[in-house]
Fold these 3 entries.
Entry 1:
Amino acid sequence: MSARTNKPHEIVERALELSRADGCVVIADEHSTANLRWAGNALTTNGVTRGRTLTVIATVDGKEGTASGVVSRSAVTADELESLVRAAETAARGAGAAEDAQPLVTGVPQSPDFTDAPAETSSAVFSDFAPALGESFARAHAGGRELYGFANHELVSTYVGTSTGLRLRHDQPSGTLELNAKSPDRTRSAWAGCSTRDFKDVDPAALDAELTRRLAWAERRVELPAGRYETLLPPTAVADLLIYQMWSAGARDAAEGRTVFSKPGGATRIGEKLSGLPLTLRSDPHEPGLETSPFVIAHSSGDDASVFDNGLPLGATEWIAEGELRHLTTTRHSAGLTGLPLAPSIGNLVLEGGTDRTLEEMVANTERGLLLTCLWYIREVDPATLLLTGLTRDGVYLVENGEVTGEVNNFRFNESPVDLLGRTTEAGRTEKTLPREWSDWFTRAAMPPVRVPDFNMSSVSQGV
């Protein structure tokens, strides 16, 4: 009998029984996906997938400290389960003492649904969305434009068991929609995207209407040189920048002088004002519509995660509060090294504290500036300042006297999100958004549009 035919919690229990290590953590991830793809106003493919990944973390005590070994495999059969456990133990015995070693977590109550079957998605998740998308295809064809894109829904049930008695389970639904509209000659392109838990809140007609408006804006083309421009960044662009900032906010690296959050002499910038606006950047595993795991799930150790912290409860954390830096990411190990509070990373991000203005209202209040659609190909240039570079994509528009008057060429930008927070003069209404650049890794974000008076468009790009 294959491991996939057994219940996940039984696989976790059996792996723990097989363990001969001093400590053991077993993580079973049950993956279920459904997707649709379309091109030229017609569906091209659709499908569903199922899978399981099993991760075993063995810890071995020694004279120099505790070592850990991590092995992950998919499609493990019952006959292969013991070899997986032994491989993790062998890896631990062959490794040196783990720098991040801590006692495995204890005392967390068992999830009431730990022994239940995993949750699954199916094509039924698109039962309302697909007909509405078909209607959008018909409108697009009649209007002389082409729609391209994809919709993906994933449901991951994660089971965590440890030799210290933890039995935890979390179900994580994640949905993304990306929609492109193109003119028949392919010279004009517009993009819209959204994240969702179940596709019940996705309106293809509204997205298509917005794309139609943007393609109309692009009928007039204006060439602009590189330079600094007053720029309106939509929520998706703000999310892409601040997610990278969060990924770069490890307390240990900051305390050791390697990041934008460092101060000379081993200090960090915690307590420093990063923005003159009362902006708050926070994460909360129970944020409505953006719910994520309420406990640590770590398949490997790194700068912002530790396998020893698996099962550690997570709570709401304010990274920036009313413009002031309050927390940097810590594991139990790095919190001890730096003397900073324990603040593990959390799977969502929210920026709030702006006005109630929509992006459209901010456009109406702009004398002359640029309106972006989204960013892509973001890469780090300098970790000391968190200088990032990247490109604009699928529409940069010129705003004059409160109206969009045409499309301009794309640009390469060079900016630090930390600097941008300090130079932002307006933030609007916070709304759920899809970070386009990072959507393969991070989908749960809510951001406002922001106004930056001098966004650095460092060079002209020829991309569409």
Note: DSSP finds nine helices and 22 strands in the chain.
Entry 2:
Amino acid sequence: MPKRKTQLMSVKHPKLTFSQLVSAIREADHYFSSQANRAVNVSLTLRNWIVGYYISEFELHGKDRADYGEKLLSELAKELGRAKISNCEIRQLYDYIKFYRVYPEIVRTLSAQFKPLMSGKLTIHKEIVPTASAQFSLPPDKLITGLSYSMFKLLAEIDDPLKRVFYEIESIRGNWSVRDLKRQIASLYFERSGLSKNKKKLATLTQKNVQGMDSKLTIRDPYIFEFLGIKAKEVMAESTLEAALLNKLQDFLFELGHGFCFEASQKRILIDGKHYFVDLVFYHRILKCHVLIELKVDEFNHEHLGQLNTYVSWFRKNMTKHDDNQPVGILLCTKKNHALAEYALAGMNNKLFVSKYQVELPKKKEIEKFLEATLKTIE
């Protein structure tokens, strides 16, 4: 039997230059990085939506919900922390609930692999009221693939459905980053568009000035690192660093022996229908007043001080008893090896009180020295 001759078919390959080789690899890397980033973002978004759904349903129909009441989220955050479930601190749980309630239509994007997570445990509502009129709303699958969870978090804070849809459309159309969206909301792009006679020109100018979403930068978001269970040495999530600093700060204040009595961590307060959280609340038994502490893992800006002043004013109006003195706030800002402490004395014009507070409260330099030393040990 004659031997079969194996012929190798010659395939003509294009002859690449070195620069074309680099370009081709860069294009492939960008494409697959974008695909991976999109898949992770979608998974994180759906996971957070489902968490919000579960909690909302438990609050309405849970068998033992009455046993928890106002403490539900604090207890849940503790249990999830013990189970090492990432991104489930009390503030984040509130965000997930709001996300679910603002975007209930996302249930339609759940694929068959996600449905078992919901069926058999909690009942999915058959009728879902859309967040804006059908004339303007984007399909939920387009929202999920076009927006990251961090962007949904910003959008959920917008009460006006039309305004929210406007930013959804512009974000997707311009491939905005979280920073772009935050900047455009802060610069009142929606309101300026309503007042502008040439809306198309304004939109063109706005889209030209945006930074745009970079897939490699987005995948480094601490939310995603924690979600994937990756412990990156070069990245520490802001929430993780804040928690570590606040724990040590609490011990530091007790060691000073100035009369600090711990009252609450992440104290929830309601202002104009929105929930805010004060990092640490103490009652000072010598000064007979509340001391509010806000920590920002960021450099100082006047917005931080304004926020703390708002909290101090709220406490003065809602929490101060007839024999209490005025509350005081302490703002702590950190950026790498630099630390800054500022005091908020909202509405306090009595020099005697101010002088008394300066004696009894820890000195600014003392706190700054503690923060810088603690940052070095944590990092």
Note: The longest strand covers residues 260-271.
Entry 3:
Amino acid sequence: MSKKQNLDLRRVVITGVGLINSMGLDVPTVWERLLAGQSGVRRVTNLSSYLDSLIEHHPLPDDFPLIAGQVENFDLKEFLQSRKEKPSKEDLKQIKYTDRFTQFALAASLEAVQDSGLDLEKEDPERAGVIIATGMGGVGSWEEQIIKLLQEGVRRVSPFLVPKMIPNLAAGNVSISFKAKGPNMALSTACAAGAHAIGMAYRSIQMGEADLMATGGTEAAITLLTVAGFYRMGALATGFNDRPDKASRPFDSDRNGFVMSEGSGVLVLEEREHALRRGANIYAEIIGFGMTGDAHHITDPHIEGAKRCIKLALKDAGISPEEVDYINPHATATPVGDRNETQALLQIYKDTKHRPLISATKSMTGHMLGAAGAVEAIFSVMALKHGIIPPTINMDHPDPQCQGFDYVPFKPREAQIRHVLSNSFGFGGTNASLVFKAFEG
């Protein structure tokens, strides 16, 4: 008897998905461009209103990366008007008093709920919850207001700074928007946050704390201060500033860092029987979640921590490594990170005949920090649903230290997919892995 049967845990399925990122403002658009191998990385258009005056006195270094996966043409009011007959007064208040990271989450959540076909007015609000993560929170509002404080004084600081800035306000506003009174929380575990949020929402439904959960991650941290901080760490890609679409290069010998991106991914998780009773369209089933700590270093990942995390997720799912058909890796294009993740996977697969296909979608989207794991979870379930794996682009010179797997270079590939593993690792040595299964009734 398996652990899940022994504990009589409930099964959890995915019935809705929503996306906002640099490649588009809805799931169909983003998925189409992903399969076409198009990059969403481009020159930054509005890094900071303070930038011009700063450069006048302190010129930026020649290699400063004014490139990012920036969301373009996003206006929450227009988005709501395109999906609702008429935005409510509460909707309009949320637009005025929320940071960009929260607005992304509101948009992605609305798409996900509408995609799920749920009529929330017919659901018990105390059985519906929200867990939406972020790595940085409202850093854009923080930067804007600190400049205002220094230039204009205390009385010019917005009274809405704190509600805009604190990390749980994305989850809070989504909960308010959908009148969801069940579990409500935000996680901030750096670049593993989106995956952790999904894992914890999965656990909430498994354990009977909720029947429905809107979960995922959101990030809007492309600000001058944040980019400068990552740049000074040596974490950002700086070698392709004149060719932004070539800058994100997972598993390539010429990679030298990640590309900052923004966006949100939200999934609707639902207890299986609840979804079947209402005839829901089911994308996939979530069957495994693992999380570990490296206890090693604040920024450098560790092979052993990643390996244990993956093994825990597979154990929770009740499957062997050989049963995984596709892996969406963390793969940010940092030299150490990509190599260590590859080594962790090689150790897991060293005695197996079968090795899964791997594709690094960050090669197209860039790295959305706390939203990345949620966005990549959506890519994973879309691959399961449609039987096609998106490509890894920019692998012009594959790194010999990352050999051992087929990374699906440049073109998507049709494949029979039953199980998908998605990895997310973050600063502080925090790791999360999720396992999804094709839904079979």
Note: The first helix runs from residue 3 to 7.
